[in-house]
Amino acid sequence: MYADVILPLPLSGSFTYSIPANMEKSIRRGMRVTVPFGSKKYYTAIIIKIHRQKPGNFVIKDIHSLLDSIPVVIEHQLELWEWISFYYLSSQGDVCKAALPPPMLPEDLQIGYIPKSEEWFRINPALKDTEISTAVERAPKQQVLLDEIIWFFTENEKDNISRKEVKELNGYSPAILSSLIKKEILFPFTIERSRLHRETTSNHPPYPLSEEQQKALDTVQHSFSDKHTVLLHGATSSGKTEIYIHLIDQLLQEGKQVLYLLPEIALTTELTHRLQAVFDDKIGIYHSGIDDQERTEIWLKMLSDKPYEIILGVRSSLFLPFRRLGLVIVDEEHETSYKQQDPSPRYHARDTAIMLAHLSGAKTLLGSATPSIESYYNAQTGKYDLVTLNERFGGVEAPLVRLQNTKDLRRRKKMKSLLAPVLMDEINAALENGEQAILLRNRRGFAPMIECAECAWTPKCDHCDVTLTYHKKVNSLVCHYCNTTYPLPTECPSCHAGELKTLGTGTERLEEEVAQLFPGVTVGRMDSDTTRGKDSFERIINDFQENRIRILVGTQMISKGLDFGNVRVVGIIAADSMLNYPDFRSHERGFQLMIQAAGRAGRRDTQGMVIIQTADPAQPIYRFITRNDYDGFYQSQIVERKLFKYPPYTRLISIVLKHKDEQKVEYAANAFSQLLKKSLGDRVLGPNKPVVSRIQQQYIREILLKIDHAISPSHVRQIIKSAESHFRENSKFKQILVYYNVDWV
Ligand code: ADP
Ligand code: ZN
Ligand code: ZN
After folding, report:
1. pLDDT digits over 323-377, tens only?
2. I need a surface site. Which of 273, 523, 540, 737 has the fewest CB within 10 A?
3. Is 424:516 a contact under the CB 8 Å cutoff?
4. Whose CA is nearest to atom 24 of ligand 1?
């Protein structure tokens, strides 16, 4: 018999090995094996197919060892892997590697050095205590060892023991241990599962919903009777999370599991507390901040007979094994961090979640105050159902949004600082009242640019085609693409004469200036520079929530779904800069960012105030923002998307080519593009030189495919793959790195 396996390597396709006779009975799809691969190495691989078809013409190697007694990757996970690799044009190996926690997939094992898979034992959970004592009643030696093992568990607060540890116990002998295993009192397994224990917190049932919320919940439930996916469009603070909690509660009562996806780790703490208060230890938390061993334990617990009923996590948590999945919630569904950028597989977690739900017979609930244009379009055209929740919870008024024309204020010499006079007044009023303020500036560092006053020289990164940002605290220039740091030159390296001036404002300068404007007031800053350390994000949030920080300055991080109770004013500085990216989504992003930031303002008793500083207040987008008019904004965007053939009317596939030699990559990109044009014609755009055309010494060219829905994903895939293999036939292109980003965002 033969087995096809996936190796966790960026290689397309699967590999066939023969199954040694002694494994034939126990081997199954979804189990792990170690196999020899290459001349000297062993890898852990996943079985995807068992068959009797001898592959022709080459030597078939044997599987070396079988690591599992049950499949660790279950059926619909394997189907999901296949879909991801098909749809996102990535290898199955890449998907496998992204899916499994690294300890479950030891790679690159040298011959000789294969670790004898360490064995652990636990007590068969299906046995009652009385059954266990009966089973060893007439075997005093087994009884002694078993008692020792149980004593070990209590002493160490564990429910498993390694072979090494058993050997040290009194009364151990290999024969006694194997009788306990044979009697199925002890279960062996190959990866440690330490008991995950957590203090039980005080529980409360879900809060009763308001009439509005109840209506929304009823509509969601009703929609699920004929739709797989529902979009909940609810204003910021309308109480979407409470609706999720009620839905989860209901699913748990039906014996189903729930996956709750969040766009990023930063949001998990607050939500974990809220969910734990209701669901206690039924929740597993899964994100990049937890270590590999814990990920492995969560995975194994999900396979056990007592899995977590709720998983709260970021995008990678959709790879966990759910046996009874009933619902996937995708919170803040519009967030771009749901799209994996690097490395492959470049999957979109929202869309993959919908596929996962489909494969598991579950439903998907997308939630946002500012839905992505794609999802709203799907809801408008009947693919999803739409449920709307307009009111903020508890009758809190939506904030008042005002524009301040900075160009005009400057001309009239009214801009005495980075803040418009009205914003200054509002902040002062808030401070006097014991309230707080948030200032959004979506650019970190002190100054986005440095320039010589004499010859206009500006510093650039040696490895990337970008100008460097000045960071004052570390007195250095930093490349925001590759993070290389350079000392600040003492004189202009070009003319040796001019003075170096800083241009523009980043969060660091804003913080400094605001601290000077409001002496004696604690100003905090939240951006990726101040939140690098462990727990630093939480510390800043905490200080702000407890009013130790009165004014919080930050990048888009401050707009992310956090619930603050005492913020009277939100100021948005240099709003235009959020709209001027050369990207068809820049207005969508800007709208989302400003509405989300605005949503942080408002208290129960006073109306919140949002001040947007712009040099161009006539831009139509500001009218939609000041009126909080999502529908109007959507209509304006969808017309453009249709006109210029952008999503949701097309699928975008970006093809990136990289090489150290600019001429080579240019030539290669032209050749690849020609090959694609043969079948796809003017759906192929480029190759283009991207805005940042060199990153980390690699020159970049980009080809963009705009695929209308008349062409199926499988057809496009076929065209791309055949173009790539023609392309690879030319030996000159061997060293060119090519990768795909499907549904590029
Ligand atoms: P959203 O997820 O839409 O931003 P939240 O669910 O976070 O809104 O609700 C906003 C605030 O109102 C939170 O502080 C939340 O605790 C509170 N809240 C919402 N619904 C209820 C409810 N039914 N009972 C009590 N408090 C609620
Ligand atoms: Zn760089
Ligand atoms: Zn100069």
Report:
1. 999 999 999 999 999 999 999 999 999 999 999 999 999 999 999 999 999 999 9
2. 273
3. no
4. 207
Tell me, using a 6 A CB cutoff, whether residue 499 lines ligand 1: no
pLDDT (mean) for 216-244: 96
For residue 90, count CB atoms less than 10 angstroms from its CB and return exposed for 0-12, middle for 13-18, buried for 19 or more: buried
CA distances from 62 to 19, 115, 515 (A): 6, 18, 69
Domains, the chain, ordered by start: 2-104 (3.40.1440.60), 117-192 (1.10.10), 211-394 (3.40.50.300), 396-447+504-630 (3.40.50.300), 650-742 (3.30.70.260)
Distance between Cα 398 and ligand 1 center (Å)? 14
Pair 271, 261: CB distance under 8 Å = no
Could you tell me the two tokens for 244? Answer: 């999720």
What pLDDT, in 10s, does the model give residues 419-460?
A: 999 999 999 999 999 999 999 999 999 999 899 999 999 999
Question: Which pLDDT score, from 0 to 100, does residue 297 have?
Answer: 86
> Which residue among 563, 600, 604 has the greatest number of ligand 1 atoms within 8 angstroms of its CB, and so is best to mutate?
563
Residue nearest to atom 25 of ligand 1 (CA): 207
Chain segment 243-277, per-residue pLDDT in tens: 999 999 999 999 999 999 999 877 788 888 889 89
Residue 740 tokens, joined:
């795909």
SS3 165: helix
The DSSP symbol for 477 reads: E
- 197: confidence class by pLDDT, cuts 50, 70, 90: very low
* Buried/exposed code over 119-145 (b: 16+ C-beta within 10 A; e: otherwise): bbbbbeeeeeeeebeebbeeeeebbbb
Quote the longest CA-to-CA distance of the chain: 98
Hunting for tokens 């020792």 — which residue is that?
Answer: 148
pLDDT band at 200 (very low <50, low <70, confident <90, very high): low
* 420 close to 409: Cβ distance less than 8 angstroms: yes
Q: Which of 74, 29, 44 is nearest to 304 (CA)?
A: 74
Average pLDDT (622-647) is 96
Ligand nearest to the CA of 698: 2
Q: Confirm or reject: Cβ of 242 under 6 Å from ligand 1.
A: yes
* 241 pocket-lining for ligand 1 (C-beta < 6 Å): yes
Ligand 1 pocket, residue 267 CB under 6 Å: no
Q: Which amino acid, one-letter code, is at 675?
A: L
* pLDDT tens readout for residues 708-742: 999 999 999 999 999 999 999 999 998 999 999 99
- What is the H or E stretch that residue 725 is in? helix 713-729
702 touches ligand 1 (CB under 6 Å): no
pLDDT (tens digit, 9 = 90+) per residue, 560-584? 867 788 999 999 999 999 998 778 9
CA of 447 to the centre of ligand 1 (A): 38
Compute the distance from residue 485 Cα to the ligand 2 centre, in Å.
Answer: 9
In DSSP terms, which residues pair with 567 in a beta bridge? Answer: 436
Per-chain mean pLDDT for the chain: 91
The beta-strand segments (E) located in 602-660 are: 609-614, 650-659
